[in-house]
Amino acid sequence: MMKKVDKIRKLLDELDVDAIVINQKATKIYLDALTGSGVWIVLSKSANYQIMDGRYAIAAEPYKDRYKNIVTMQGGVFNGVLQWLKDNGIKKVAIETEMPYSQYHSIEQLCDVNPLNDAIPLIRSVKDEDEVQLVQNACSITDQIFSELLKHIYVGMTEKQVVGEVFKLVYDFGAEGVSFDPVISSGPRTAMPHGRASDRIIQTGDFLLLDFGIVKEGYQSDMTRTVSVGEMTDQFKNLYETLLPIQQATIQQFVPGKKGKEIHKYASKKIEQSGYGEYFTHGLGHGLGIGGGERPLMNATSEDVLQSGMIGTCEPGIYLPGVGGIRIEDDVLVMNEKPVSLTKTTHELLIVGN
């Protein structure tokens, strides 16, 4: 199995550069490097370097088998990177596109700069077996958290209190944290696809949208279920029973060779045929792994082509202003045989808070 660092190092030749400069946390996790903001990674044709300030000197010791550690003055780590480029006579360097302009400008004064654009996210998008297992572990913990969370929801609590329960359970079940701010909304607020939790009190008959993910060993999950509180309205039942078959059929479209925009269009057309076309207002899904711009994207314009080993979310939704919205989201592994959902939580109509 090719080491992840070697997959990135191939860009040295592909882009015809002398070095690659990295400071994005997600890339550092992928490269099994220190992830602190005061650590920069430089990959050259001769060696791999971690350039850091003294805060990280002890933590860097176990990495000596794969990185040459260079310790600089605190507050001057980026100057240490510039000094390394000078000392090594680097003529051409590739940088992550997210680099702040001031730093880009400083490097540009020393050598020719080649932006990496989406080269690293596209390399990261195809997971090896170990990475698939790590995402599966994160999804399994999320399934357990969701099952326990339902027991803690009651009429009269606020959306923010539900978020508090999510955070508590995330740590109780051994995760390192959440992969994004949980999207917890109730009643008419569920019509906002990414409505963050408010002080709204959850009431009988509400739609309740629960969208959260966790981080375990650097890899993430992302799952959404929408449930009823206290009792189920006919409107909820009808919307849910419209959306679920569409979501399940769309999962089967996650096959090698399909473009992200084709899969999005498949779901969008199905929702349109059901009479709710104008109420699906976002992209179908995104890549899943370490985070920080995971590919592939499944939206109306995505040219990303699915390959075996990619993992993406399938999260269509229907959102009726003033009434409420429903989203159902699973994490799907693309395989040559057929797609596999890594999230196993039930898709049954659920009533909570009784």
Report on this structure.
There is one protein chain. The chain is an alpha+beta fold and 354 residues long. Helix content is 31%, strand content 21%. The strands form 5 sheets. The chain has a 6-stranded mixed beta sheet with strand order 4-3-2-1-5-6, with helices on both faces. Strands 8-9-12-18 form a 4-stranded mixed beta sheet, with helices on one face. Helix 1 packs antiparallel against helix 5, helix 6 packs across helix 7 and helix 8 packs antiparallel against helix 9.
Largest sheet: 6 strands, mixed
Determine the number of helices (DSSP H or I, runs of at least 4 residues).
9
| Proportion in β-strands | 15-25%
The residue fraction in helices comes out at: 25-40%
SSE pattern, N- to C-terminal: HEHEEEHEHEHHHEEEEEEHHEEEEEE
Radius of gyration: 23 Å
**Strands ordered across the widest β-sheet:** 4-3-2-1-5-6
Mean pLDDT: 96
User: Which class best fits the helix and strand makeup?
Assistant: alpha+beta
Q: Roughly how many Å apart are the termini? A: 51 Å
Q: Overall 3D geometry?
A: elongated
Number of strands: 18
Low-confidence stretches: none
List the defining traits of the structure above.
elongated; 9 helices; 354 residues; four-stranded mixed sheet; alpha+beta; 31% helix
Any chance you could write out the topology, listing elements then pairs?
Blueprint: H1 4-14, E1 19-22, H2 25-30, E2 39-44, E3 48-53, E4 68-72, H3 77-87, E5 92-95, H4 101-108, E6 112-115, H5 119-125, H6 129-149, H7 159-172, E7 177-178, E8 183-186, E9 207-212, E10 214-216, E11 219-220, E12 223-229, H8 234-251, H9 260-273, E13 311-314, E14 317-320, E15 324-327, E16 330-333, E17 340-341, E18 351-352
Parallel strand pairs: 1-5, 3-4, 5-6, 12-18
Antiparallel strand pairs: 1-2, 2-3, 7-10, 8-9, 9-12, 10-11, 13-16, 14-15, 16-17
